[in-house]
Amino acid sequence: MNWRMRSSVWPAVICMIAASCEGPTGPKTGSLTITISGLPTDIPAAVTITTPKQTTLTATTTQTISDLDPGTYQIRAANASNDRGTFAPSSVTSSVEVTAGTTPVQANVAYSVITAVVSISITGAPAGTTPLVTLSGAGISRTLNTSGEIGNLVPGAYSVSIGNVDSGELYGGVANPASLNLAASIAPVPVVVTYVVTTGTITLTSSGLPAGASANWDLSGPAGFSQTVSGVGQVAVSHLTPGQYLVTGRNVVVGGDTYGSTIGTTVTAVTAGQSAPVSTSYILRPPTFNLVVTNAYLVQSTQNLAGTVPLVAGRDAYVRVFVKGNETNTVAPQVRVRFYRSGQLLATQMIQAPRSNVPLGISEASTSDSWGAVVSGSLLQPGTSFVADVDPANTVREVDDSDNQFPLNGLPKALDVRSVPVTNIRFVPIVT
Predict the structure, then answer these.
(1) What are residue 57's phi and psi, to 5 degrees?
(2) How far apart are CA 48 and CA 52, in angstroms?
(3) What are residue 285's DSSP bridge partners?
(4) pLDDT at residue 12 above 80?
(5) Of 5, 70, 244, 304, whose CB is crowded by the most CB atoms within 10 A?
(6) Residue 70: is the preceding peptide bond cis (ω within 30°)?
(7) CA–CA separation, 81 vs 221, rounded Å?
(8) pTM of the complete model beyond 0.70
(9) What is the layout of strands, in order, in the sheet containing 234-240?
(10) pLDDT of res. 353
(11) Which residue, 58, 38, 173, 6, is CA-closest to 109?
(12) Coil, strand or helix: which one is 220?
């Protein structure tokens, strides 16, 4: 190539190089607008954007993300929640294609509520008590002690249960409504729980008894209620179910004297939250009470009420003395058992009362139905006799003291005690 030819080519080469250096004009990146709807302002969205280079971006509110490389972007939305409610996206995953340009690519994430809220208002509970209001249903149970909201509840059927509180009387609650069928919503469903007093009191007052003596009353009322109450002066019986009650004043024995109630049996009405007064006057009455020793026997292995089963000499036995009274009482006298042989006193045993009152009938079913004690086998020999008497110190005022012993005539009863000879037994082995 000669110089002239080279000179003509050079400008064209320069033009080609220049054109190659400038290239096309315009933006090389794009942008993405994430529009989030359906969420309250205080709940952030949970949206992640994965770039073509597998890096992750997040979006909690509606926003535009700029300077994005062109390519496919994966958008994933998760549930968003706070203490009151949970919101779910209409679509969990989606993808958008970002291209270079000034106009953002649009992506929409729509949320909707999937839980319910209940607002419970508690009134009427006495100060210092702790209410117990439980909302149960859809496999969950939530309890409130004060007024408040229970959120994030799965839609479905629920019931409200209320625990009693005690403030001198029992208070129970009533829920309105007591059952609910919850639908998904952020608006709270109201429930009003009202506590009201449910029990009442009977105040018993006695007069006429000697100083320090306790009056005794029998109370009976609704649903089989029965209670014996004792006290000096004024006694309050609370936590009673409203209704009609029978109050009976028992006789009181003080120092051998019997004081009778002037009210006999009276009817009083108990109202929730109220105290029903019952006054009882006592007067000194002539004795009507009587103790009787009906039977007594000694038993070693088996015995009947008449005591006719023989006893084995030298073996310990158990004495049982059967005492009964002719009316309801609160006396617990001692029993004395004396053993004789040939007219001579061998031993005396004092037996304490096995219960706080004398039974009105005779029963062999339980040891507490009779006065009993172990008798040494050394006392049990042929010719032994015994006599038993109740209240030997005469501390109980009675109509008649002449029937306080067994046998009734006061003469010792002979025991059928037998000496059993030694029995020799020879064991002979037999081989077959």
Answers:
(1) -115, 155
(2) 13
(3) 258
(4) no
(5) 70
(6) no
(7) 55
(8) no
(9) 234-240, 200-207, 275-285, 257-261, 252-254
(10) 96
(11) 38
(12) strand
Is residue 17 predicted with pLDDT exceeding 80? no
What is the token pair recorded at 273? Answer: 């939250």
Q: Which tens digit of pLDDT belongs to each residue from 275-327?
A: 999 999 999 877 788 999 999 999 999 999 999 999 999 999 999 999 999 99
**Backbone φ and ψ of 19, nearest 5°:** -60, -40
CA–CA dist 325, 289 (Å, integer):
7
- Whether omega for the bond prior to residue 359 falls within 30 degrees of 0, making it cis, is no
Q: Give dist(CA 133, CA 116) in Å, integer.
A: 18
Sheet holding 179-182, edge to edge: 140-144, 132-137, 156-163, 179-182
Query: 3-state secondary structure string, 331-384?
Result: CCCCEEEEEEECCEEEEEEEECCCCCCCCCCCCCCCHHHCEEEEECHHHCCCCE
Mark residue 208 as left, alpha or beta (left: phi above 0; alpha: psi -120 to 50; beta: remaining).
left
Q: What is the mean pLDDT of residues 396-408?
A: 91
**Of 84, 85, 92, nearest in space to 113 by CA:** 85
pLDDT (tens digit per residue) in 113-169: 999 999 999 999 999 999 999 999 999 999 999 999 999 999 999 999 999 999 999
Can you say whether residue 6 is alpha, beta or left, with left for phi > 0 and alpha for psi between -120 and 50 degrees?
alpha
Strands 116-123 and 148-153: antiparallel
Q: How far, in Å, are 15, 16, 17, 18, 268 from residue 5 at the CA level?
A: 17, 18, 19, 21, 138
Distance CA 156, CA 167 (A): 35
pLDDT digits (tens, 9 = 90+) for 217-248: 999 999 999 999 999 989 999 999 999 999 99
